[in-house]
Amino acid sequence: MASASLQFFAFILALFGGFGDIAATLLPNWKVNADVGSNIITAITQMQGLWMDCTWYSTGMFSCTLKYSILSLPVYIQAARTTMVLSCILSAFGICITTVGMKCTRLGGDTDSKNNACFAGGICFILAGIFGLVPTCWYTREIISNFLDQTIPESSKHEPGGAVYTGFISAGFLLIAGVIFCSSCFKRQQGAWIYPPKQHHFPSTEQESNAGYSLKDYV
């Protein structure tokens, strides 16, 4: 019962991590630049994401521009696109597989098959967490290095946006969920290896006595 509850808790974490990965991939605020200027009425907030750049004016107007050209983008944005999409796909696969393999469900067949499915789902979650953590760290490093660069003007410097923090938290949820699923299945398999099922050996005394009794009858 405790392992089933722990797996269910890990599944909830994986759901939050998967939805957070999708949200972080689609959100346009990976880096934000607020330019107030001399008049607060003309304040502009510029946001840049993986797929589009958006501008929000203090008057309430909001406009976005899609990034159509892939080759013109920096390397870290191209890598972030690829790894975040892979993270979303792996988290979706992990959710489908662990739904079949969890102990609290009636899918997946026998116990060994369910354990293997949970272990495979845990590996998918761990890989999804790694693929989600790498681009967020790389993207944050680029933002900080540009912010500390004295040759870049202040108007061109940015700060990490909400999508970066969402990616960090989602990657952490996926890693924790994957470790829980893999460790629960590993403990069960290790217990089966250490304590193998006992084989019942029937004594042969009864057979010998029956054999001796049959010989006496013939005598």
TrEMBL record:
Assigned keywords, A-Z: Cell junction, Cell membrane, Membrane, Signal, Tight junction, Transmembrane, Transmembrane helix
Domain of life of the organism encoding this protein: Eukaryota
Major subcellular site: other
Residue intervals passing through the bilayer: 84-105, 117-141, 161-182
Protein's UniProt name: Claudin
InterPro entries, per the entry: Claudin, Claudin_CS, PMP22/EMP/MP20/Claudin
PANTHER family: CLAUDIN
GO MF annotations in UniProt: structural molecule activity
GO cellular component, one term: plasma membrane
